[in-house]
């Protein structure tokens, strides 16, 4: 058997086994996920809350960012009024 034919045969065998393996992997992943969910329900809220907090931006953070950008533009010569970006903290 030539190296090219051998590679084709291996590739065909792997392609034929893919559907069977994916079902096993999905079943195993579902089993592991179920075990993790059952064991870590109490920690989930804290983790999700921290993740959401890390990804979202509060209104005050947005206003501070806009004010810094406005002040930068004023330093560069703009006549913009940056007081509208004032926060109450």
List keywords for this structure.
single chain; 89 residues; mainly alpha; 3 helices; 78% helix; elongated; Glycine zipper domain-containing protein; signal
**Unreliable segments (pLDDT under 50, ≥5 consecutive)?**
none
Described by strand count, sense and barrel closure, the largest sheet is: none
Strand content: under 5%
Number of strands: 0
Give the proportion of residues in helices.
over 70%
* H and E string: HHH
Distance between the termini: 77 Å
Q: Could you tell me the radius of gyration in angstroms?
A: 28 Å
This entry's quaternary arrangement is single chain
Tally of contiguous helical segments: 3
* Coarse morphology: elongated
Mean pLDDT: 73
Question: Based on helices, strands and strand pairing, what is the structural class?
Answer: mainly alpha
Biased composition (Basic and acidic residues): 61-89
Signal peptide: 1-22
Region (Disordered): 58-89
Protein name: Glycine zipper domain-containing protein
Please describe what this structure looks like.
There is one protein chain. The protein has a domain at 1-41. It is built from three helices and no strands. It has helices at 3-39, 41-55, 59-75. Residues 1-22 form the signal peptide. This is Glycine zipper domain-containing protein. Residues 61-89 have a biased composition (Basic and acidic residues).
Characterize this entry briefly.
The protein has 89 residues and is mainly alpha-helical. The chain has helices at 3-39, 41-55, 59-75. It contains three helices and no strands.
Write the layout of secondary structure elements.
Blueprint: H1 3-39, H2 41-55, H3 59-75
């Amino acid at each position: 058997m030539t190296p090219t034919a051998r590679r084709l045969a291996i590739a065909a065998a792997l392609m034929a086994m893919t559907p069977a393996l994916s079902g096993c992997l999905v079943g195993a992943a579902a089993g592991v996920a179920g075990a993790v969910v059952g064991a870590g329900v109490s920690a989930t809220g804290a983790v999700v809350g921290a993740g959401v907090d890390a990804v979202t931006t509060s209104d005050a953070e947005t206003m501070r960012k806009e004010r810094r950008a406005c002040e930068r533009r004023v330093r560069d010569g703009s006549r913009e009024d940056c007081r509208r970006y004032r926060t109450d903290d």
